[in-house]
Protein: AMMECR1 domain-containing protein
Organism: Blepharisma stoltei
Amino acid sequence: MSERLQATDEMCAVCFDMLIASLRNEPTDSIIDRFLTAETQANIPCPVFVTWKIGRDKDLRGCIGTFDKTTRIGEIVPRYALVSALSDSRFDPISLREVEHLSVSVSLLTNFTPIEHPLDWEVGTHGIQIDFRVKGNRYSGTFLPEVSKEQGWDQATTLVQLFRKAGYKPPNSNRNPAEIVQEMAPSLSVITYQSSKKSMTYARYQAYRGIAN
């Protein structure tokens, strides 16, 4: 995946376009067509995550993405704008009255690299994607690059938290996180990646689109 890919204001704006139109039961085909024309990277395939946050504290309101490396940005960003806003099972679907309090972030995922040692990555620089099996059950999950830095986690703590996010609670989980990671290492597959991230508040969206308050 090319390092030149950059998340843009247009990608963030189309997320708001899609969400508002969907909540108003308006068609979205023309929005996608315009995005395909306006966004210069629209025809490049790339994995994407879309994150919605709300309020001054920027509480998480939805975050879903895909590691699909075959679908172009022009299709996948509008699609996941809605999936993350309306279909994140951790939250109720976003409502129209919430839109003015939202901010959206688009993350383009690049530079996927399998690593041999699960702690061989940098907090704040790398996202991690894990896959492992325990007693015949398969678990997988990911944290975007900013998560570990925002939470103040080191590499081992990040991995233990990701085990839990994936649905697996390690035995004696109050142990030192590094011990847990060492125990899990033989069955653990870790891929690191980086991202280009762009964020936009609703107020910035209005200004970008020239929408009057």
